[in-house]
Amino acid sequence: MNDKETHYEQNLPHLLRASIGPDVRPAPGLREELSRRLVAQIRSRSRPAEFPATVLAAFSGAALLAGGAWLAAHLGFIVAIDLTALAPLTALLALNYLCLPVACVIIILRRKYA
Amino acid sequence: MKTDYQDDLRLARRVTQGETNAFEEFYAQHADLVFAFVLHRVNGSRSDAEEIWQDTLVAAIRALPAYQGQSRLLSWLCGIARRKIADRWRRSGRRVHMVTMLAPDDLLQLMDGGALPAAMLNQASTRARVVEALAELPADSRDALIARYADGDSVETVATRLGRTYKATESLLSRAKTALREALTRIQREDV
Predict the structure, then answer these.
(1) Quick check: B189 pLDDT over 60?
(2) Burial label, B96 (beta-carbon count in 10 A; 0-12, 13-18, 19+)
(3) Among B18, B58, B145, whose Cβ lies nearest the Cβ of A43?
(4) Tens of pLDDT, residues B128-166
(5) Is A25 in the same domain as A71?
(6) Mean pLDDT score of chain A, rounded to an integer?
(7) Which residue in chain B is spatially nearest to A21 when comparing CA positions?
(8) What is the tally of structural domains in chain B?
(9) Contact pairs from chain A to chain B, CB under 8 Å
(10) For residue A32, what are the domain limits?
(11) Binning pLDDT at 50, 70 and 90, where does residue A99 land?
């Protein structure tokens, strides 16, 4: 090691201690406080906005009304063509058709916005 | 997008996604250095430094999704700190110049020539320049230099902290010293 490198090595600890040593660090209390603040800031940003309950209720209501109307039309059609014997079965089928999409939509929305 | 600082970019992405461990890593690696940078830039005024430091990190977390890894994360944070300092001086109508008695360009020359004069060590612009130079190093090199020389830890302690062997730590420290020297050469004097 030449003189130049030796001097550099000898000066480095003094220079680093003066620049980033314990005396030039934030107070521990303040450091902790800011850390908590930043964690809260990150959490509030990474959490998605809550899906408004009123929108979900309105959506479910509309789906039920539409389903009910569809079911009524279906039953009306059965009665009109006088296939009353098949009506209970058809009604059950229609109910299945109605429940499935509504349930799926609700599950998707809950997963996305929980 | 190809970036030069993939490790920093990955860390920033993880922080943005709300990973607690990533935030702790980010904070441990950067918070103290940003504070030191600000403190030197405001000529050692702790009250000013504390406010600007907090504003800087709050703004940084907000802007983190925009970080593209085109500079070291710490350099990027120092850039935000510089703007916060300038904003503060503009708002308060005062401007603090770092007292520079010796040209920072002389730093390496003085370091190579013998014991560094106290005037140079005490100069805020010298200290800020060292922090900026550290900001250009990879996190492990930076951590090793700080632990070994600023905190005075033994090589064994640094090795344990970094999870490396003694030999690997010695070699990391040697590379880090050279890298710091090169970084100090690159950094030009800048006004606050």
Answers:
(1) no
(2) middle
(3) B18
(4) 889 999 999 999 999 999 999 999 999 999 999 999 999
(5) no
(6) 77
(7) B150
(8) 1
(9) 113
(10) 3-46
(11) confident
**Domain check: are A98 and A58 in the same one?**
yes
- Who's near A112: CB < 8 A, 6+ residues apart? A48, A51
Residue B53 CA to residue B1 CA, distance in Å, equals: 30
Of A15, A25, A41, nearest to B32 by CB-CB distance is: A25
CB-nearest to A4 from B18, B57, B112 is B112
Count how many domains chain A has.
Answer: 2
Cβ–Cβ below 8 Å for A38 and B27: yes
By residue range, what is the domain housing residue B36?
6-101
Q: What's B76's domain CATH number?
A: 1.10.1740.10
Least confident of A67-81, B41-55, B72-86: A67-81
Q: Averaged over B62-84, what is the pLDDT?
A: 93
Q: Per the CB < 8 Å rule, is B31 touching A21? A: no
Q: What value does the mean pLDDT take over residues B60-77?
A: 93
Task: Give the closest residue to B96 by CA, choosing from B72, B143, B128.
Answer: B128
Q: Are B133 and B33 in contact (CB under 8 A)?
A: no
Chosen from B11, B23, B158 to mutate, greatest number of chain A CBs within 10 A: B23
B16: left (phi over 0), alpha (psi -120 to 50) or beta: alpha
Confidence at residue A10, expressed as pLDDT on a 0 to 100 scale? 86
Chain A residues within 8 A of B63 when measuring between CB atoms: none
The C-alpha atoms of residue B186 and residue B188 are separated, in whole angstroms, by 6
> Using CB atoms, which residue from B16, B17, B115 is nearest to A11?
B115
- The answer to whether residues A41 and A57 belong to one domain is no
Verify that A23 and A39 share a domain, yes or no: yes
CA distances from A81 to A66, A77, B25, B139, B165 (A): 23, 6, 73, 79, 87
Position B176 scores a pLDDT of 95
CA distance A105 to chain B (A): 26
